[in-house]
């Protein structure tokens, strides 16, 4: 009794072991195993699936006792359980944007983790979601949603709700004790539960302070069991620490059903919501919001949101080119900026484009298009803080560099789509047709594409846009400049 138990937990994946390993045996990352001490205060404590299980009396959301459940026939499980396919709808432009990311409405009994840097807008997002669910109602019946905060007082949440113009039937509660929270919430049988945040709650009888790895894991497991046994969907906020702090949500990703990350640039009001794990849908849709004085709003002109002011103005600078990228099922126009500085050593500074890709494009421009970039410093930047992960942006990168090098601006009604090969040839990219149509819809005059793209185009009208197929970089330079 009172003996201290030592174990090691991987800060990357949460793998727990009784001994230290140089390389995590689960995720194979080196140097991530951290030591934890846990004093055994109770003989009845035991471990199930690596998690601490307490004595009786903590609540029914703790694991079922042996023998309580029997294996069920598939037919019996499915009978009368059509609610499994039913989702709590989220409507309106804001609701649609959230639904897009989670793959439909909220799934009953699911546990969703919403991560993001402090201040990015997680509490705002979830308060708005809570308000929407309670407004939607449950067949006209009163249908509360409970918002529990361990960070703010109910007055503070009330103030925020007031600012957001929320008037729906939400219950606010401020507590840090998971057992207390779940008891009271269960009593209300709400449509959904929001817990803000995992770092501020604790489970009595478990060692460690709130926010520590053990508490974070145990509290999340308790919330998961609560969600599964009551069918109440639980939305959980977690502050992420980019360095992958041991108590950060990385560890929780394995426990929860859905992991959403909210991101935003410091000086921009745009917020992006992305699913990185989703047991009920895909993970490649992106939700885009704008943080306004009255909360988050869905962005209506999403395709153009990554263009800078200059690009939308008439005055154009040299070194700018518009790329057309896909994220999930959506098409975005983003602006690539290049600056070539002659007379300096060939240093390269790249922001938003993988350095190796940028190097390749610059080398191809030197070798295949004859640009004397070797004596130039080249700076590249993607406006908006996005990272250009698609090769479809190669051509715009090359065009921006050419424009800066030649000091000839590219008219701002031209867009570029295409991958560049080592021979300077333009190559096809996926979903060419969809990209071209987006560009046409936005009123562009010209779209430069690989020669082969002509075949991908249907017979539909492209407004007044000219689609110019080019074989290689030399063709492009002759067409544009
Ligand atoms: P918050 O939701 O508290 O962030 P998190 O929970 O992720 O820490 O939002 C923080 C920022 O959002 C804060 O700086 C103020 C801003 N904000 C608005 O701009 N408009 C609003 O209507 C609200 C509620 C917040
Ligand atoms: Mg908050």
Helix content: 10-25%
The bound ligands are: thymidine-5'-diphosphate, magnesium ion
Distance from first to last alpha carbon: 81 Å
Indicate the mean pLDDT: 83
The beta-strand count equals 23
What's the tally of helices? 11
> Major sheet: order of its strands?
8-7-9-10-6-11-12-13-14
* Low-pLDDT stretches: 39-65
Structure classification: alpha/beta
Radius of gyration: 27 Å
For the biggest sheet, the summary is: 9 strands, mixed
How would you classify the quaternary structure? single chain
Keywords:
single chain; 481 residues; alpha/beta; nine-stranded mixed β-sheet; 11 helices; binds thymidine-5'-diphosphate; binds magnesium ion; nucleotide-binding; hydrolase activity; RecA family profile 1 domain-containing protein; zinc-finger; metal-binding
Report on the structure:
Helix content is 25%, strand content 26%. With 481 residues, the chain is of the alpha/beta class. The strands form 5 sheets. A 9-stranded mixed β-sheet has the order 8-7-9-10-6-11-12-13-14, with helices on both faces. α8 (355-368) crosses α9 (394-406). The N and C termini lie far apart (81 Å). Bound molecules: thymidine-5'-diphosphate (TYD) and magnesium ion. Thymidine-5'-diphosphate (TYD) binds at residues 116, 118-124, 160, 163-164, 291, 293-295. One of its GO terms (molecular function) is ATP-dependent DNA damage sensor activity. It comes from Crotalaria pallida.
Provide a concise account of the structure shown.
The chain has 481 residues and is an alpha/beta fold. Helices cover 25% and strands 26% of the residues.
């Amino acid at each position: 009794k009172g003996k201290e138990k030592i174990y090691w937990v991987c800060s990357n994946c949460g793998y727990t072991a009784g001994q230290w390993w140089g390389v995590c045996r689960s995720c194979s990352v080196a140097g991530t195993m951290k030591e934890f001490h846990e004093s055994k205060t109770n003989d009845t404590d035991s471990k199930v699936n690596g998690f601490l299980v307490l004595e009786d009396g903590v609540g029914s959301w703790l694991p079922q006792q042996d023998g309580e459940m029997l294996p069920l026939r598939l037919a019996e499980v499915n009978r009368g359980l059509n609610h499994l396919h039913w989702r709590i709808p989220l409507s309106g432009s804001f609701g649609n944007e959230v639904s897009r990311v989670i793959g439909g409405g909220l799934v009953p009994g699911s546990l969703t983790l919403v991560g993001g840097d402090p201040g990015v807008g997680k509490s705002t997002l979830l308060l708005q979601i809570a308000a929407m669910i309670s407004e939607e109602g449950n067949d006209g019946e009163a249908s509360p949603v409970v918002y529990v905060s361990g960070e703010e007082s109910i007055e503070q949440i009330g103030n925020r709700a007031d600012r957001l113009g929320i008037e729906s039937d939400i219950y606010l509660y401020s507590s840090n004790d998971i057992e207390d929270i779940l008891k009271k919430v269960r009593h209300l049988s709400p449509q959904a539960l929001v817990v803000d945040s995992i770092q501020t709650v604790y489970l009595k009888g478990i060692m460690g302070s709130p926010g520590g790895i053990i508490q974070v894991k145990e509290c999340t497991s308790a919330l998961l069991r609560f969600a599964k046994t009551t069918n109440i969907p639980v939305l959980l906020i977690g502050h992420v620490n980019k360095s992958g702090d041991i108590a950060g949500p990385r560890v929780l990703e394995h426990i929860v059903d859905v992991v959403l990350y909210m991101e935003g640039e410091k000086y921009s009001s745009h917020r992006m919501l992305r699913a990185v794990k989703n047991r009920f849908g895909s993970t490649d849709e992106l939700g885009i919001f704008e943080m306004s004085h009255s909360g988050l709003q869905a962005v209506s002109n999403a395709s153009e949101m990554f263009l800078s002011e200059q690009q939308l103005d008439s005055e154009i600078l040299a070194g700018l080119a518009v790329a057309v990228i896909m994220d999930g099922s959506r098409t975005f126009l983003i602006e690539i900026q290049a600056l070539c500085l002659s007379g300096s050593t060939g240093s390269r500074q790249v922001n938003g484009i993988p350095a190796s890709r940028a190097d390749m494009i610059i080398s191809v421009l030197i070798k295949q298009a004859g640009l004397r970039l070797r004596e130039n410093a080249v700076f590249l930047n993607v406006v908006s803080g996005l990272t250009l992960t698609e090769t479809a942006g190669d051509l715009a990168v090359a065009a921006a560099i050419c424009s800066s090098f030649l000091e000839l601006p590219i008219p701002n009604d031209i867009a570029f789509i295409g991958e560049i090969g080592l021979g300077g040839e333009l190559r096809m990219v996926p979903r060419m047709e969809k990209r071209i149509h987006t560009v046409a819809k936005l009123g562009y005059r010209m779209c430069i594409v690989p020669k082969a793209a002509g075949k991908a185009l249907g017979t539909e009208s492209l407004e007044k846009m000219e689609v110019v197929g080019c074989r290689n970089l030399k063709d492009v330079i002759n067409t544009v400049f």
